[in-house]
Amino acid sequence: MDLTVTNVRKTFGTTVALDINQFVIHSGDLLGLVGNNGAGKTTLFRIILDLLKPDSGEATMSGDIDGNMVSYVTSKCEDWKDFTGAYIDNGFLIDYLTPEEYFYFIGKTCGIGREEIDQRLMKFEHFMNGEVLNQNKLIRDLSAGNQQKVGIIGAMINNPQVLILDEPFNFLDPSSQIAIKYILEQYNKETGATILISSHNLTHTIDICSRITLLEHGIILKDYPKEYANLTAEIDAYFRGEVIGANVASAEIKSIEIEVDDPASGYVVEGQNTSEL
User: Fold this and answer.
1) Rounded to 5, what percent of the chain is helix, strand, coil?
2) C-alpha angle 31/37/39, rounded to 5°?
3) Average pLDDT of the residues of the chain
4) Minimal CA–CA distance to 221: which of 270, 196, 199, 254?
5) 47 or 255, greater pLDDT
6) Which of 84, 109, 263, 276 has the fewest CB atoms found within 10 Å of its own CB?
7) What is the pLDDT of residues 96-155, one digit of tens each?
8) Quick check: 272 pLDDT over 80?
9) Would you give the distance in Å from CA 52 to the centre of its chain?
10) What does the buried/exposed string (b/e) look like for 82-116 if buried means 16 or more CB atoms within 10 Å of the residue's CB?
11) What pTM does this model have?
12) Burial of 160 (0-12, 13-18, 19+ CB in 10 A)
């Protein structure tokens, strides 16, 4: 399922939170969105999910559903929700339910029976580590890490074709971080789902993602394929303030297209090679 963001702009007062001309996430991409606090990552996710109205522009999901080609503007219909899973923060949880009740509720809204939900939960056993199910606790009484697990599992329980996770590694202990990395990689490989994650954990994000997009002050600065030879070095250098960074706020970069045929050659911004930036 392709996801396209077109002419999206969002301001809060005089602050431009997001300004993207065109951004295409291709079917099967496992894309990592990185940037500092206030970069616009969560704003972008909320606009895609129709949780926040942009000043202009739209997000579209398009692709094959049961042999039929479809295209849905997310702000204009509800159909895309049938094949989409997302977890942004604990506001997505129903915290007066137990985890089991929450998963069964999601199953009921998606037309999935309890037995099938129980089967699907089995693949998350290692991730849950015996701390989520059968604890006789409401979600609000779980630790922050276990609430995070409930939210991520809830987003994936309907086997979505589009999965959006904001800071999935937050609150998780090291074992759980490794487990969710494996789960996301395997799910992407086995299903071809389009997965978007944002994270401040650069190591985990670069490890699992097939594509890394750098967003800063609402503008996409760079978009790398995993195969790009200098990916880790350039990302690290950027966050040390050694490249681009000084004039980020006034950057005019609007649209990115990756030159995937020759990953070592860099990337193209508005048709201009910028590998030397």
Assistant:
1) 35, 30, 35
2) 60
3) 89
4) 254
5) 47
6) 276
7) 999 999 999 999 999 999 999 999 999 999 999 999 999 999 999 999 999 999 999 999
8) no
9) 16
10) ebbbbbbeeeebeeebbbbebbbebbeebebeeee
11) 0.88
12) buried
The residue to which tokens 């699907």 are assigned: 120
Q: Residue 273: what pLDDT? A: 39
- Residues 162-199 have pLDDT tens digits of 999 999 999 999 999 999 999 999 999 999 999 999 99
Q: Which tokens belong to 17? A: 């939170």
Show the CA angle centred on residue 154, arms to residues 128 and 194, nearest 5°: 105
Q: What is the pLDDT of residues 44-61, one digit of tens each?
A: 999 999 999 999 999 999
Phi, psi of 30 (to 5 degrees): -115, 95
Q: DSSP alpha helices (H): ranges in 143-173?
A: 144-156
Q: How far apart are CA 56 and CA 167, in angstroms?
A: 26
Question: Residue 219's pLDDT is what?
Answer: 97
Q: Of the candidates 186, 128, 197, which has an alpha carbon nearest to the alpha carbon of residue 162?
A: 197
Q: Which residues contact 1 (CB under 8 A, 6 or more apart)?
A: 27, 61, 62, 63, 64, 83, 161, 162, 193, 194
Separation in Å, CA 171 to CA 143, 167, 175, 253: 9, 9, 12, 33
Angle of CA points 254, 256, 259, to nearest 5°: 155
Tokens encoding 271: 């048709």
